[in-house]
Amino acid sequence: MDNFAAYQATAYSVRDRLIDNWNSTQQYHSSKDPKRVYYLSLEFLIGRTLDNALLNLNVKPNYQKALTDVGFRLEDFIHEEVDAALGNGGLGRLAACFMDSLATLDYPAWGYGIRYTYGIFQQKIVDGYQTEYPDYWLTFGNPWEIERLDVTYEVNFRGYVEKYTDDEGVDRYTWEGGEKVVAVAYDYPIPGFGTKNCINIRLWSSKPKREFDFAQFNEGNYDKSVEEQKAAENITSVLYPNDNHLVGKVLRLKQQFFFVCATLQDVIRRFKKAARPWSEFPEQVAIQLNDTHPTLGIVELQRILVDEENLSWDEAWDIVTKTYSYTNHTVLPEALEKWSVPLIQDLLPRHMMIIFDINLFFLQEVEKKFPNDRDKLRRMSIIQEGNPQYVRMAHLAAIGSHKVNGVAELHSELVRTTIFSDFVEFYGAEKFTNVTNGVTPRRWLHQANPWLSDLITQKLGGTQWLKDLSQLSKIKAYATDAAFQKAWMETKHKNKVRLAEYIKQTLGISVNTEALFDVQCKRLHEYKRQFMNILGVIHRYERLKSLSAAERQKIVPHVVIFSGKAAPGYYIAKLIIKLINNVAEVINQDPEISPYLQLIFIPNYSVSIAEILIPASDISQHISTAGTEASGTSNMKFVLNGGLILGTVDGANIEIGEEVGDENIFFFGTLTPQVEDIRHEQMYRSLTLEPRLEKVVHSIQNNNYGDSIIFEPLLATLRTDYYLLSKDFGPYLDSMDKVDVAFKDRAGWAKKSITAAASMGKFSSDRSIQEYALRIWNAKPVTVE
Ligand code: CGF
């Protein structure tokens, strides 16, 4: 039997256990009928399942033993599993962490999403450039999903709307869809850690309503006979590869409606089992919108209640708004979704009517509260006027929800004071709240870093900390204990060796595992400033070149590692990847400098790569322009694994700083309130670059890192410098120098690393979920007996 077969056999055996727990959970919930939480997300970035399931079910040692008995080693084939990569980045991974926490904390919860045939594209680096390949993740089957041919719903698009008057003289509407497809459920069991609770992510796949058009076939139109079938299947074919950037494609809008339409039918079917009145719907159902992507669900529920269940508009709207809540993940203008009115009108004619009505009734209330303020009405309207008009999905989501939350303190404050400031004035501040993101310690420490997990478990005398991360703080007492420091730093070293082996295998480069590992891995985006990082690397390289051999000896050696994908259409982000790779070519082939500086771009960043990368880092960079990164979640994972942060005062970095203490984090850069003023100033003055930056730019222009013509558009971004690279460059380099000084003091560094990791209790996704449950969903755990 080869490794893949061994993987499959093991996976199917674990799946049986999952299904047992899953069945017991569903049966128990059916008998108790508690309030359910529904987490609606267009993305779930799950990664691999086998190791996670073995650990959560607490059967890993048993499986290891059983496998050894028949001549196999789990470690040899665990990598055979293909990542389930149905997400772009933080937002999708957050959804996956939340599922783990919901299961672990015994919530009767469901995730709903789309079963994309192709997940996020595979990235290869060819001649330094990113090239994209399809992610054929289902080719060899997927042991972790259960196809539910018994759970299907019809989804309609287009068609026409008819008006009639009901028996009470009320105007009513019916929508007869034109294009009809079917949604088929695929269930993905999610086991909690140390509990029987096993929840479900239900992913929808689109299928044609009719398999085949026989009329066309009989007439010899073979292409036409399968056209409809193909169009239906296309809906759930591919995940749109954009993060923090909107693309207004019809197919994406179709995905969004397809998803919420099937989901609501499923949710309502479950609600109706108990024959309760509609008024009890919000007591039984909480629906969380992960960003605005599922916002049409608000409109669809209103349509069902008014058009199909014949409730009055007001009764229906009351139910809708009590049911929904919305998480905002960004204030970047280019990321806020808006859909053209003609597009929605064509695809969903009845929904467009309902959106206009929601808007009308809403603006009437605004007018009552703030009479004669036309500008306010224009700003708050769901409809952005123009030709064409647009629907602002964030406004619709906020108006149709009882709570709106941001994902870190600073971000939530920006949500309240920028994009929703008028809404705060109208509704009051309580509707707009904060739930700081979190990450699951089960995957991001226990699974990804078994050496450190074992060390902590030994010290704390058990694994309880994995269910209550605040217990980590007890480790602080050992931060200066020499033996513990030694053991702690040994685990770090093992992780660096593991990563070095991976780099050797994939890129053929041997890296120095005694060097400081300096990592920036995340989506490529100008606001995240990987460009500033690579410019800093050039600066470091050229400074090393100018030093004598003796002087170089005093410098802390760095292995700088980048990893991340750029959206295929994001030209500047792709140029940054090219620049990193060109600079790597030069540095890594310079034998004089390689002992002190190496530069690696790890292709095809994924959850599985993050699991090797994160535990190995000494320093990770989270250097977004202040006010642009809503939260960040990898920052939490790095510190949890004993890595320190070099970062800006942005997103969740700030709260991490509050927990770990200023001496255990390296902050630098412009603060949020100054950013706009500086931009304004820069607009009216010709910008002179920071001298060290200027030198680096000249060096690129002198073709030291390949033909500089390629990089002109990238360098041109420094002229307006919207993301303040020039302003922050000096403080950035100075901060990096402080990192080096700190790293030289081995005991001091170990103390920082231990103290920081031990202070991360707050950043468990369990804490986030408990906050949602208490303050937003009003949902309670149910222990499956
Ligand atoms: O959501 C993000 C991420 N890129 O997916 N947003 N979106 N859209 C934010 O940019 C991150 O800062 C945030 O951590 C993440 C999850 O909330």
Automatic annotation (TrEMBL):
GO terms for molecular function: glycogen phosphorylase activity; pyridoxal phosphate binding. Coiled coil: none annotated. GO terms for biological process: glycogen catabolic process. InterPro entries: Glycg_phsphrylas, Glyco_trans_35, Pyridoxal_P_attach_site. Its cofactor is pyridoxal 5'-phosphate. GO terms for cellular component: cytoplasm. Its EC number is 2.4.1.1. The modification N6-(pyridoxal phosphate)lysine is found at residue 637. Belongs to the glycogen phosphorylase family. Keywords: Allosteric enzyme, Carbohydrate metabolism, Glycogen metabolism, Glycosyltransferase, Pyridoxal phosphate, Transferase. It comes from the Eukaryota. It is an enzyme of class 2 (transferase). Pfam families: Phosphorylase. Allosteric enzyme that catalyzes the rate-limiting step in glycogen catabolism, the phosphorolytic cleavage of glycogen to produce glucose-1-phosphate, and plays a central role in maintaining cellular and organismal glucose homeostasis. It catalyses: [(1->4)-alpha-D-glucosyl](n) + phosphate = [(1->4)-alpha-D-glucosyl](n-1) + alpha-D-glucose 1-phosphate. This is Alpha-1,4 glucan phosphorylase. The keyword NADP does not apply.
